[in-house]
Amino acid sequence: MKRIITLFFALATISLSFAQSNATIQAKRSAKEASIKSTPINTVIESRAVDCIWESDFTDSNDWVLDHDPNDCSLDWEIGQNLECGGFYPIAPIDSEDGYYAMLDSDEYGGEEGGTETEDSWLTMANSVNCADFDNVIVEFDTWYQSYSTERCFIVVSTDGTFPTDLTPDTEHDPANGIYEIFPDISGEVQANTGNPFTKRVNISETAGGESQVWVRFNWTGTWGYAWFIDRVCIAEQPANDIALNYGVVSHNGTGEEYGRVPTSQVGGSVNCAGEVFNFGSADQSNVMMSMDVVNSMSYPVISEEFGEGEMYGFDADGFLTDQTITGPVATDQSVYFSKDVDIDSSVPADTYTATFTTWSDADADGGEYFGDNTATREFAFTDDLYSSDGLGVYSLPDVSRMGTGTFTDASDGFMMMSYYDISEGTYVAGVTILLDSYDWGNSFTEPATVAGGELVVAIRDTTLMSSETFDPGNVIESSDFYLVTQSDVDNGFITVPFSSPVYLSPDAYYMSVEMYSNGNESDIYILDDETIPQPSYLSMIYIPGDQVYSNGTAAAIRLILGESVGVKEDVISGLNIYPNPSNGIVNIELDENGEFAIEVTDILGKVISTETIKSNTILNLHNLDKGVYFVTVSNNEIMKTTKVIVE
What we know:
Blueprint (H helix, E strand, L loop, with lengths): L51 E5 L7 E5 L9 E4 L18 E6 H5 L8 E7 L11 E9 L6 E7 L20 E3 L16 E6 L1 H4 L6 E8 L4 E11 L5 E9 L9 E3 L5 E11 L9 E7 L5 E7 L4 E4 L5 E5 L9 E10 L6 E10 L14 E9 L2 E2 L12 E5 L8 E11 L3 E9 L19 E8 L15 E2 L3 E2 L2 H6 L1 E12 L2 E10 L8 E5 L9 E4 L5 E3 L3 E2 L1 E5 L14 E3 L6 E5 L6 E7 L4 E7 L3 E4 L6 E8 L4 E8 L1
Parallel strand pairs: 13-21
Antiparallel strand pairs: 1-11, 2-5, 3-4, 4-11, 5-10, 6-9, 6-11, 7-8, 7-10, 12-14, 14-19, 15-16, 15-20, 17-18, 17-19, 20-21, 22-35, 23-31, 24-30, 24-32, 25-29, 25-35, 26-27, 26-28, 26-30, 31-34, 32-33, 36-37, 37-40, 38-39, 38-41, 41-42
């Protein structure tokens, strides 16, 4: 098995790709059969970073003119309160303070199969703003945008009230003519997104600086995307001295993966700590620095580090990190990346930690007018034996969604979610804990989606077999028995599934998969998906039966339990053997235990095909059944085991 090694790069500014087996794995467009929407209660709306010359929170729609190119489409923006996407593949609305915002719903316009028109639709200020007294001008706004494949988002600036009306996805960033592409790093990357909400700043000084009349237009162009939301638009003078810390990173293996919980045995002696700093000011900044201070759950200081020019890296023209350190000063609109491996060995106790990152320069230091955006935090935990890509229960402000057998069309039975785990030190794995969406009822979700009665099986998979060409659902390193989801599981909000015996994993990378069967959506199973921290695209994957595997780029709540016990005693039917599998329909059942056992055969929809009672070895004749997947359950009053059988 090949370990996946990636360059450590800035997660918020460039798209993440999964390069393995020379195959491209794309994200899947979510075809939801029912509206399942996350409703976070901990929405954080950033305070204004600047004083506005002009602003609009969309409570007055007269601030804007909505229009489109009639030669291309008939799609218009919408302005209102609590607008929601109405298409077949909806994304959630933008998180907003007052619920008023603008929305461009390309998905609804494209329909179920997708439109063919090159959409060209805009949202324009109704009246101009006077920027004659300001040489440096910016637009700051809240936004929520998820990319599909071809669309582009622009700000277009005019000083005479006229605009180009023929923008396309091939239009280039051209500030000299007032055209500013807003999301060049994510547009065109399937399911890449800004975060919800995200405060974006665009420097329009080249067009608007010193001008007495300035109009700003938000221009969407593309074919059948998702949606784009705009809120709290502010035109302001660009500060001279304002550096901002975009985010901080704590990655125990230094490959861009940020796990919520890492067992101390997997820490490996050091942790990569990093952060991206952006010079938002109009003046170059000298002596830019960053620090990191870590405290434990009792707020006791644990680590204090300072990052200087020896740990500062730049970005190339394509947005990728350079491999050589750079020196300052940091120019206006330039981003730099501080990175250092910090010594943390396995003796660090299991606990929850908070890292606070702070950046400063000679002109933008503590106590300054614009120092409010100079800090960022990152929460993580070291544990004794629990390894989780998700940070639910660790993060104080989690962003949670859910995914399961009802999320995609034709994925009610056999749908798989997978989490990627890097094993740096050989270890035994006893089992897996899975968080159901009921774990977060009343917080992120107002009503349940998981229903008792579905079944699932957990497996360990080879990371090199994840491409569309090589993925085989039956090719696993180890798998558990089938597990029947009970009402108690739904009430508890989690399931712990042990392997029949501990599995030894050598140092390498693995996927932990959960394969789900819902009886044709009668007993849906949903697993929590942690979207709090931007992750490499490969950190979670999904498989849709009859389709292919797709990258997901989140942290599915499928957690490894390291060691030789999960603390749960498993009843075992001694000597039970069901073979051959796959078969032509003739299946042997052998068992060593004495007594009477019930045999039940069901199809993937839960329909009972046959039942019988046995006291010894027997042969099942499934020869007359259609080819496909069936479940054979062997049970008595005390124990039960379900095995998936494939009839070819």
